[in-house]
Amino acid sequence: EEDKHTVLDKHQSICRMVVNKYKEVQNRNQIEIITSAFYHPILPLLCDTDAAKKSLPHFQPKLRFNHPEDAEVQIKRAVEYYQSLFGKSPVGFWPPEGSVSEQIIPLLQRHGIKWIATDEEILFRSFTSVQSGSRVPLYVPYRFQNNDGAVNMIFRDNNLSDLIGFGYHKWNPQEAVHNFTYRLEQIRQQVAHVIEEPLVTILLDGENCWEYYPNDGTDFLNCLYKSLSENNNFRMVTVNEFLEQNPPKRTLHQLWPGSWINANFAIWFAHPEDQSGWEYLNHTREALVHRERMSEFPIDKQKLDLAWESIYIAEGSDWYW
Known about the structure:
This protein is of the alpha/beta class.
């Protein structure tokens, strides 16, 4: 039993170092740390579950959840927590599961978010005109703008991101890195005479894949960073660094509502158990609002705050995954 406590104490000691280490590295501009909605909800569905209908036209949900004020709380709380940890406001934002809709943009803008990221399929489905199938439009940043708000957007390269996430752990590290840089070079040649400063966005759940790599991915990552650092054709940048030097020249006036999984919200909304979950959440939230308004029976503020906290927790995406 004593040995177990020794090991757990060491784990906690290491965990306490992590945020300060990130802060140190960010302060010397080596990395950029972004944030996400506080309890990881699917923000477009909090704003209005009807957002799911565009990408799932044959789906007829049993209910409509429509509470953008909750989405704003989740964004606000995330920004405030970031500020408490790093002493400044976040510039970038990853909407949970890359889930976007036009309705979340003014909420993000209101809380100082300058750029967000999502999946390439969202970009291609957001174009008003049919594209020729070229991937060239993927390698530039965009400004999404409508009457309600505006934000800069970048879109991930699925192929390269998924190779790191799901493919290269089966490869020899040197061969994987060679393949990766070869693919980057192909992109560079493809866009060389079209885009002055192309940006290739590699984006994935950063914690999920390394347990499948030999040596937890250390050999692959060391080889990858060494190769890219020594290659004069490529420069590694943070997103904010790139956007400051290359503000978006292209504007999107409509944004496809969807996530980075099949460009829709099916996983969190379309299955019978998902619908039950949203129905319970909706009924419980309505009951809480009704109870809160019963002025003749005042409720203890501490209990009320705890009840609302439970609602916000229940809005998290993993309950519906």
